[in-house]
Amino acid sequence: MFGVSAKPLPPRRPTDLPRFDGVAPRVTALTAGAHRGAFVAMVLVVSGVWEFCCGVTDRAVDITGVPEDTEVSRVCEFICYVDPTTAELRYHQHAMLDDEFDFEVYGQLVGLMAKFPQLF
Predict the structure, then answer these.
(1) The pLDDT of residue 11 is above 60
(2) Domain-located, residue 71
(3) Is residue 45 in a domain?
(4) Boundaries of domain holding 62
(5) Hey, CA dihedral for 84, 39, 48, 45, is it positive or negative?
């Protein structure tokens, strides 16, 4: 209509990832590798241009496939797929969080999740 054709936008994330069902365990940089072949959620702090560190452990975290035009805040929660063979974190989506995020409480919560998974 009106001589304009719609052009589909390119996908913003890898299409070779499995379907995400909306549930991902909360992990840290130390525990993510235990979830190979699954999606995980990790709260990260931006430490440089496309550089992230785990907000709980303060360890550097590499995430592949983050689109160049992705907008991030200082603190973000990333949903990533953990590659089953390499344990590499592959970007799926993220949410920007408040810069005043309480990492001490979050770290305690992540610790409880490992001990009592049925509650979470």
Answers:
(1) no
(2) yes
(3) yes
(4) 32-114
(5) negative
